[in-house]
Amino acid sequence: MYISGAINLDFYEVVRTRRSVRSYKPDPIPEEALMRILDSARIAPSGSNRQPWKFIIVKDEALKRRLAAACQNQKFIAEAPVVIVACGYNIHWNRGGYMGDLSMLVDVSIAFTHLILAARAEGLGTCWIGAFDNEEVKKILGVPENVNVVAITPLGYPKDEGFSEPGSRKALSEIVSIDRF
Fold first, then answer.
1. What does the domain layout of the chain look like in residue ranges?
2. Strand duo 147-156 + 125-126: pairing
3. 3 state DSSP class of 20
4. What is the 3-state secondary structure (H, E, C) of 132-154?
5. How many CB atoms lie within 10 A of CB 133?
6. What is the 3 state secondary structure string of 51-69?
7. CA separation, residue 40 to residues 2, 70, 161, 167, 169 (Å)
8. Fold category of 31-159 in CATH
9. How far apart are CA 112 and CA 40, in angstroms?
10. Long-range contacts of 129-138 (CB under 8 A, 24+ apart)
11. Which pTM was predicted?
């Protein structure tokens, strides 16, 4: 089900101006905006349409503080009105011939990218958190043994930082080649 009503930003503006936000206003997120963001993750592509993901929406203040502590004590995470924890089910598919059970990381990362870009389109900030204690986060949120945490993001309106184009990036010639590596 598609939920309409998003802010109308050009796709390339969304991509160019998505930033890692580390300071959030306490302002609540409209439920309609949150549903559009989550729906963007829901419709993301996945290998063989497995959709090996589950997103946990955390609004409880005490839980957010515990999550921040489990993310190498990055306290700004708990400032945001919402924290989203992206989990992935081990899918027993050896993508590329070397990824094994953790090939779900690709699918969950695709869905998480949809989510953070949709958040930017809504005027909301995110910060892809990869520094966390998987076992501790699983314990805090009651995540089953056969599921792992892939990424975490605070979600909210930026306090001090605006949205702008990135600073220094490699030139296309450094990251793209044609026909051969």
1. 31-159
2. antiparallel
3. strand
4. CCHHHHHHHHCCCCCEEEEEEEE
5. 14
6. CCEEEEEECCHHHHHHHHH
7. 9, 27, 24, 27, 27
8. NADH Oxidase (3.40.109)
9. 9
10. 129/71, 129/74, 129/77, 129/153, 129/154, 131/71, 131/72, 131/74, 132/67, 132/70, 132/71, 132/72, 133/70, 133/71, 136/70, 137/67, 137/70, 137/71, 137/85
11. 0.90
- pLDDT tens digits, 92-118: 777 777 777 778 999 999 999 999 999
Residues belonging to the chain: 181
DSSP annotation of 158: B
In terms of Cβ atoms closer than 10 Å to its own Cβ (0-12, 13-18, 19+), residue 53 is: buried
**Over the stretch 8-18, which tens digit does the pLDDT of each residue have?**
679 999 999 89
